[in-house]
Write a structure and sequence with these properties.
Order of helices and strands: HEEEEHEHEHEHHHEHEH
Number of strands: 9
Number of helices: 9
CATH superfamily: Alpha/Beta hydrolase fold, catalytic domain
Largest sheet: 9 strands, mixed
Helix content: 25-40%
Distance between the termini: 51 Å
Structural class: alpha/beta
CATH class: Alpha Beta
CATH architecture: 3-Layer(aba) Sandwich
Strand content: 15-25%
Shape: globular
Strand order of the largest sheet: 1-2-3-5-4-6-7-8-9
């Protein structure tokens, strides 16, 4: 005869399996575990997408939209899942914030807000090169953005992967970046629609920004990226906070205690 605790355990396992099956059917993809939360991987018109669901969605179905490097440095995402946020991601690998990447984000946004009832104004989260798609999409859709959290973000592709400043750059990634935009190097160097150049729509819409940077970052130098963006955004009247990590480079991302980041996002949902 099964013990009472054994019966409860089996019932709980069955309940979890049932929830997973329902979720998989709802999203039409595969189900896995994301730090104790249900993760759904599915295709949307050829796009590879991921959604992680909270145990209970908060009112209005808030969500954080992760740009690139899904699953890396996840403590902010986990904390927001605990608060009832969904976490969403669509693959824009090696597109470097190009118009093709923006089109993918447009399609994913429409799907989540129109068909799944997600909030019309997600929080955006971008690590490293994720800053390119995050800001390029946001500058075209400022009314659809609750706030932006960017971590060691690339704000100008000439800095990275171009390596045209003090950073080392990445020659192979630079080639892929040029291909994504259809540029020659001369055209790329003359381009005036990097995130640093497209801040006015965000400032006019009152979108609050939070950057976390390592002051000795040699991959994405602060002086060529966040420092320039911060000065320009303040000049435009925008609200931006920058958290500095004085002796940290490009890695590790985030904060060991994500509370300041989480509180920023919650205060602007």
């Amino acid at each position: 005869m099964l013990s009472y605790s054994r019966v409860l355990c089996l019932l709980w396992i069955g309940l979890l399996a049932s929830v997973a099956v329902c979720g998989a059917e709802e999203w039409g993809g595969e189900t896995s575990d994301f730090h104790g939360f249900a993760q759904y991987d599915f295709s949307l018109d050829g796009l590879e997408c991921k959604v992680v669901a909270p145990r209970e969605a908060a009112a209005g179905k808030p969500w954080i939209w992760r740009a690139r490097f899904f699953g890396h440095a996840p403590n902010v995402d986990i904390a927001l899942l605990e608060k009832g946020f969904h976490v969403a991601f669509v693959d824009v690998s090696d597109l470097f914030g190009s118009p093709a990447a923006v089109a993918r984000w447009d399609a994913f946004y429409a799907f989540l807000t129109q068909e799944k009832g997600f909030s019309k104004k997600p929080a955006l989260e971008g690590l490293s090169r994720g800053g390119l798609i995050l800001y390029n999409w946001a500058s075209e859709n400022p009314e659809k953005v609750a706030c932006i959290y960017a971590d060691a973000p690339v704000c100008d592709f000439k800095s990275w992967p171009g390596g045209k400043g003090k950073g080392a750059g990445n020659p192979k990634s630079w080639e892929r970046c040029l291909a994504a935009y259809g540029f020659t190097e001369a055209e790329a160097l003359a381009y005036k629609r990097n995130p640093l150049d497209r801040l006015e729509p965000l400032a006019l819409a009152g979108v609050p920004l939070l950057h976390v940077v390592g002051d000795v970052d040699e991959v994405v130098p602060v002086a060529e990226n966040t420092a320039v963006l911060e000065a320009r955004y303040r000049e435009l009247g925008g609200s931006i906070e920058v958290i500095h990590k004085p002796e940290v480079g490009h890695h590790p991302h985030g904060l060991s205690d994500p509370t300041p980041i989480v509180e920023f996002i919650l205060s602007h949902r």
